[in-house]
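Sample log: Succinate dehydrogenase hydrophobic membrane anchor subunit.
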Amino acid sequence: MAQERIGRKRLVVGAHYGTRDFIVQRATAVIMAVYTLVLVLYAVLVPSLDFDSWRAFFAFTLGALPVGQLLATLAFLSLAWHAWVGVRDIWMDYAHSDGLRLFLQVLTILWLVAAVVFFGQILWSL
């Protein structure tokens, strides 16, 4: 009795995307969740949320270390990496043409890099 194959046959070349991506998705999700809790606590505890209070939050320092900016940067880099893993998997699953998949992946990388650069320009110009 012959077995039927469902779906495409994927060539496994030793990249081990599955385990690493699983860990990356969970780690970045935890970082974003913790940062979201910090933002929510700040919003609850600060009596007036205006531009100056948010600016003070992001400009918070411990000694010479800009903690507010570093935490925001870590959260945004986590968001970008989390998005890359998810969107790349979507392109790998649903874009069947190699050329189209490569084009979409390059477009996604360019968009994420531009978003990170734009974020950095805004946050680190405080």
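Observation: The first helix runs from residue 17 to 45.
Observation: The two ends are 69 Å apart (CA to CA).
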